[in-house]
Amino acid sequence: MINNKGQTLIELIIYISILSVVLLIVTLILFNLVQTQNIIITTANANDTTRYVLHDITGYIEDGYMTTEPNPQNATSSILTVQTDSSGDKISFYTKNGIIYSQYNDSTPIQLSSSNIYIYNMTFYEEATSGTSPTIEINLSETNTLSTGVKTTKTYETTATQRRQ
Q1: Is 149 helix (H, G, I), strand (E, B) or coil?
Q2: pTM listed for this prediction
Q3: 3-state secondary structure string, 109-126?
Q4: What is the pLDDT of residues 110-133, one digit of tens each?
Q5: How far apart are alpha carbons 71 and 79 in whole angstroms?
Q6: Coil vs helix vs strand at 28
Q7: Cα–Cα distance between 98 and 77 in angstroms, integer?
Q8: CB under 8 Å to 47, separation ≥6 — which residues?
């Protein structure tokens, strides 16, 4: 008598089907993890860029002589001009079309923020101080459109006190 203890074709098809379903689930989980990681990295990069720009502006305020001016032509928010030294050299910060620019004297503007981030409501306010160095409050909001189409919005606020009088 011959003992055939092999697997039938139907059993093989069932095993392959179960394995396919398990691999599909694992693949979807890994895809979602990678997509979530990309969203986190993109958001973190946007936040880092905006914080760096704010830090840069704050440094110029603290080390310079500042004046606040009305909106420049075609700009979408306030402009801040800082006199960098006693020679009269100035640097200005403003937004245009959702991007933050700096402009040294009358030179070509330099883009400070990424074009992937839309900056709006950037305003500079001189806080009322009597007899002390002026303090400037900086407010801005950013919108970051992720690769998934999701938009994240964040608002930043900081202050800087001029060290020089």
Answers
A1: coil
A2: 0.71
A3: CEECCCCCEEEEEEEEEE
A4: 999 888 889 888 888 777 666 677
A5: 6
A6: helix
A7: 10
A8: 154
